Amino acid sequence: MDLHQKHKKNGFTLLESLLVLSIVSIMSLVLITNIVPIHQKKVIESFLTQFEKDLMYAQQFALVNEESVYLLINANQQQYDVKSTSRSTPFFKRNYSSDIVIEGSALSNRIIYNSNGSIQKSGTIYIYYKKSTYKATFYLGKGRFKIEKL
């Protein structure tokens, strides 16, 4: 028997290994470049969803307990909290991303729900995130509000 016939090929060539490595690298690069915009979109979406839920909670608490409740925005510390007139400590504090900027035009930094669940003062709040602008409009009457992208 010939010595060369006993040896079998067990493995990949250098060219095959480099080809697979380059394909995996390109796929990883495409994935990573697509993750950043998705993450940025989810940051503002989760903030707006939580903000909306917190406003609804404040309104419902004011209505059920028949006392005024207010949401106070502290833009310098990137947080807002919900307080009641009968309690000295807030119900909760929410921190948000430093990339989010909240500007109150007519409402300044405070949203107050009366004991009947209606809002005390109508107005708008502008929310800025990166290159996106959102407008939260609060209506007199039943305390309704809407958040829309501008």
From TrEMBL:
The keyword Transmembrane helix applies. It is found in: Cell surface. It comes from the Bacteria. Keywords: Competence, Membrane, Transmembrane, Transmembrane helix. Its main location: other. It holds the Pfam family N_methyl. The keyword Transmembrane applies. The chain crosses the membrane at residues 12-32. NCBIfam families: ComGD (NF040982), IV_pilin_GFxxxE (TIGR02532). This is Type II secretion system GspH family protein.
